[in-house]
Write a structure and sequence with these properties.
homodimer, 6-stranded parallel sheet, alpha/beta, DNA-binding, elongated, 434 Repressor (Amino-terminal Domain), 12 strands, DNA binding (chains A, B)
Chain lengths: 372, 372
DNA sequence: TTGAAAGCGGTACCAT
DNA sequence: ATGGTACCGCTTTCAA
């Protein structure tokens, strides 16, 4: 009803260049065609197919008309007509988390390079919400759906998610996951285990013997993988299990803080290095140590994981494992677009040794407490 | 061509519930209608208008059929038919920047609360790119376009942007800007000037007399406003211009680092407090000071702006001005949806005094260099 | 209450 | 090279 009233049928009213009229309806391709005195079909060709099969004179007239009228093609209409859109749908657990915003940045880069726009939705770390989002997103018929988020063990929901994605793919959709491998779809995986392992070996080589390992809930695969990788690295370096203390806590800064407090309370007992499975947690650890009168890096070494930007700004600078999140994002788009069925791409990590783990640890036989 | 081959015209083939077939076409409303033995129109009503005018028996059959078939409405088709979409388009300068990702989080919250999905695009801090994006976005006919980013003075592009947004609004679109006021559209503004002014007054009250102010390029309004606000606060507190040193640099961490180096090199000359117009810069300043053998907070006080999360994790904890970015985001959506034409909403800020500006400054007359 | 049919803004095939 | 037109999937009159 809104589209019929104020528009001329076929040049009945003289065309006017003025934009001043308060006409509430946007310019359509038909308007452009009329203005350029060509058919709808020709206008479409002129605007899309380059110069393919349109006399340049006509093409110019169409282009001019479009510009004059301020024509912007209706993406939805194009999508319905073509049966496909030019978008990539991204589901992240949390935008405000630098981890995911870095991934989002990578995806946005890659998408724009391919002429796609990104639609982003936030699952709030809930598998349930994630599922709902994917379901809704399917309705937008995006070219690609990318889901970024650590798998959280939750059988039923996971199965439904797999169904949903499978249906999506069955109808020609493309997908990529950024998380742990295990789901039957193309997956970009950060090599958490190997990164943690390398870190552990490096620390062992630097002379550290007694460790505390602070990790998050085991349901969170990212945490678990890093934890396991680290202990694997220690084992390979000949560090006994009795020289490893584990604390499980929240996967957050305050989780790290609390764990470190607990550690200090019960007595450090010769622990030389505290490894927290994320930088955020590690920073909490450092603050807790300092609050307890201990100097991180001198009294106890601290290491983290992620290499978030503030890792180099805390004091002492934090030893950590760099995760190229942005690359993970671009890689996900590449993978989804490629025809590699169900491939898993591992993104390598890099260890950065900094001041929080000085080369020479506090020598070896210090059975009771830190240096005071 | 892909849509015609494998689908039955009107129940010629018996319907099957199996999903195993490799049929590359998705389920349409027509399929659901046929399956439920009602007309297209009735199916549409059943799925949309609640129970309005559909016999409950039929409605149930439609719903069942839809569920059985895994029907997901085609958002693009709905959009073309209805002439409007259920999306809010967000243009940010940089997702990876916590400043914008916090805003994005707020917008996402508000959008989802209103049943809208967010499409996010990144302008890379380029006004030109921003303009192109808005132009492209218009094609998606979003309900709302939100642009988040400090205005950058650039006359021509700005004018074009205004045109583009005006056309968008003329065709029924809604907009909100998160930036400085000045453009003829509803705007959410962080009260940078007032925040900086309050900070300055607080610091003056704490006893600081001699200041260095490190800011970014004047083109960036956010920087300029904070700078001006700070000096206004100093002036109001009776601090003379001769007690204020200005350094202009990049609006980044390394900009802050460099500026602090310069400051140290030329001799601190009694400067008691360094104010950097963003936390990121302030953190660069702190690292530079430390690298130069000075202890931030003891030898020179440091203050920033934004209250990014790492502000409390650096040592000493950084005095700064909190900006409720997430609220700015939600407010923008609210504003766009409301019918307040061209209103400007100011978001208030909060000063947090921390260890980087201890109460008692290093007394007064120390004309040459820092304490050594 | 229901179904037929006319759009929505485009795309792409088919003649000419 | 160009125009006519069927069609994309869905919404919404308009009669029945």
């Amino acid at each position: 009803m809104s589209a019929l009233d104020s528009r001329s049928e076929s040049g009945a009213t003289p065309r006017r260049t003025r934009v001043t009229d308060p006409e509430p309806v946007s310019v359509t391709l038909q308007d452009v065609a009329t203005e350029a005195r060509v058919s709808l079909a020709t206008a479409s060709r002129a605007l899309n197919g380059g110069s393919r099969g349109v006399r340049s004179e006509n093409r110019d007239r169409v282009l001019a008309a479009a510009a004059r009228l301020g024509y912007v093609p209706n993406a939805s209409a194009q999508a319905t007509a073509k049966g496909s859109t030019q978008t990539v749908a991204l589901v992240v657990s949390d935008v405000a988390d630098p981890y995911y915003s870095a991934i989002a940045a990578g995806i946005t880069d890659a998408a724009e390079a391919n002429g796609l726009v990104v639609t982003m939705t936030v699952a709030d770390r809930s598998p349930r919400r994630e599922l709902e989002l994917v379901r809704g997103l399917r309705g937008h018929r995006p070219q690609i759906i990318v889901i970024a988020g650590s798998r959280i063990d939750d059988g039923a929901t996971e199965r439904e998610l797999i169904d949903e994605l499978a249906q999506y793919r069955a109808t020609g959709g493309r997908t990529a996951l950024i998380s742990q491998p295990g789901l039957p779809f193309p997956t970009v995986t950060v090599d958490n285990a190997r990164g943690a392992e390398t870190l552990a070996r490096t620390m062992a080589e630097a002379g550290y013997r007694r460790y505390a390992i602070i990790c998050g809930p085991n349901r969170i695969r990212t945490s678990l993988d890093r934890c396991r990788g680290f202990t694997a690295g220690l084992r390979a370096s000949g560090i006994e299990a009795e020289d490893q203390v584990f604390i499980q806590t929240q996967f957050t800064r305050s989780g790290g803080y609390d764990a470190a407090c607990e550690l200090v309370e019960r007595g450090l007992d010769g622990i030389e290095l505290i490894f927290a499975v994320s930088d955020t947690m590690a920073i909490g650890v450092m603050t807790a140590l300092r609050d307890a009168g201990l100097e991180p890096g001198r009294d106890v070494a601290v290491a983290g994981f992620d290499d978030i930007s503030s890792a180099i700004d805390v004091v002492p600078a934090l030893t950590t494992v760099e995760v190229p999140l942005r690359e993970a994002g671009t890689e996900a788009v590449r993978l989804a677009l490629s025809d590699d069925e169900n491939r898993t791409v591992r993104i390598p990590t890099t260890v950065h040794v900094r001041a929080s783990t000085p080369r020479a640890p506090t020598s070896s036989p210090a059975p009771t407490g830190p240096s005071t």
